[in-house]
Amino acid sequence: MFTAIKRLLIGRPLKSTELGEQKLNKTKALAILSSDALSSVAYGPEQILIVLMAAGAIAFWYSIPIAIGVLVLLTALILSYRQIIHAYPHGGGAYVVSKENLGIWPGLIAGGSLLVDYILTVAVSVSAGTDAITSAFPSLHDYTVPIAIVFVIFITILNLRGVTESASVLAYPVYLFVLALFIMIGVGLYDIASGHVPPELHASIGTPVAGISLFLLLKAFASGSSALTGVEAISNAIPNFKAPAPNNAAKTLAAMGLLLALLFSGIVFLAWYYGITPHPQVTVVSEIAEQTFGRNAMYFFVQGTTALILILAANTGYSAFPLLAVSLAKDKFIPRMFTVRGDRLGYSNGILMLALSSILLIIVFNGQTEHLIPLYAVGVFIPFTLSQTGMMLKWIRQKPEGWRLKLTINGIGALICLVVTLMFFLTKFWQVWPVLVFLPLIIMLFRNIRKHYDAVGDQLRLSTCEPPITVEGNVIILPVAGITHVVENSLRYAKSLKPEQIIAVYVPFEREDEAAFEEKWKQWQPDVRLVTLHSPYRSIIQPLTKFVDTVQRKAGEMNVQVTVIIPQFIPKKGWHNILHNQSSLLIRAHLLYRRDVIVTTVPYHLKK
User: Fold this and answer.
1) 65, 75, 131, 541: least CB-packed within 10 angstroms?
2) Is the CB of residue 249 less than 8 Å from the CB of residue 32?
């Protein structure tokens, strides 16, 4: 029943050879990787006005120069991340740039910040989309959290079905949102130009404002910069693009930057000219749409597409989080299970972890977007600052052609990002202080996992010998995942049983791995038969259990006993089993109910 439900929701498994079909073209990539950045125009301008309200509505004209400053930062970021895309075409973004140019610790700070940021991306986007719905239908305010959780589950299932399938669904609401806002901005500008909007609604640019301060303006600038969250996602997701991936990613980034600049500028200008004042129950975009169109079908079209893109902007997190997790897992800073592709060729463990974490955040914060945005934004600008600084050092060390211009671009970006980061800590400390707590904890966790993997690797290398165990037996099947002390210990035990035959079974996911392992095994254990079962659907259990059943049937005809020996090592700390022994436990669970097959586990105890 579980399998049937899974197939209904997720779809049929895909072969590893079908991975190329899961790559994105520029049109689909713009939809799923830019949705976060584009959707932030729905709340970025509002954050500027909320800060300026402290000086009164007369200060709203300052939103225009602040918006210009945000556009300068956007330009620097777009140019900088174009350089990162071409310099690091395999993806990884700020984590890889910081690790290679600044060192392990800055890399872990950037990687940890981005992992948390992508969780916040889902929570903020879904919460903001729910706000847009409840703005249009106030009677739904009491159901904000359940609505948000349902949307997270929906997007999770969509992503588990595969990259291209989720992109095909998401492209329509993203482009409809862009169309709706361009129509709203165009009609608004036409009404202003034709004199249908009275100029008395707003204060003129340059009007003196009592009580305004540089600190307040910098705070408003930092808040408005939250509209730039998601700009880095494309550089993390380069492997998802069709070839030539770096060129397609760079073009998609440029298109995203242009759309973001136009939409952000238009909304800020209309909000100032209309004299829009933020309200807790109604978004600024909702007020602009109502003043532009009235409460007619076009208003609900704008609100509907805004709610859709705010909710589906969470997909940027689903696209970037698993790929970043793969980079960290390959460096052994998080469990290796994040490198395993699911049935639909996506990194399903990363997708599920992201979904569970974001649902927890939504529940803890009660779906209140305004409480999440500052924490979300500061989590973005820390890696922004580190990646720009890392690129500066790269150009200074390597001095490629045109390096001075590249250095200038990254220098400007690093300086502005640093200012924005500091302003968040100075002006919104009581909202962003959790960063100072969870970031060190995450980095400590990264280091402990890496130390554990290193310690295990040292003990599993074939450098010492263990005394053999003497027991008698017949035909033995030994699943192996590599050439380590664990396998050597199990092999010695198997030989001590004096069977008629030992069959080592290896389940590779790629043909290259199959050939490489066969060569290593031939050199290490030439007298032990090795059977490789290529698994195009990346399943270890199914091909192995099918092989065991086949051997058992033949052995039954010959009245020969079949024994399956499952290698397993026991770390000193019990929770470390989660990192290493998922496959061993699953194999044992699937084989135990088979009649006439003896299943045993040979433990290897780690010494440290």
Assistant:
1) 65
2) no
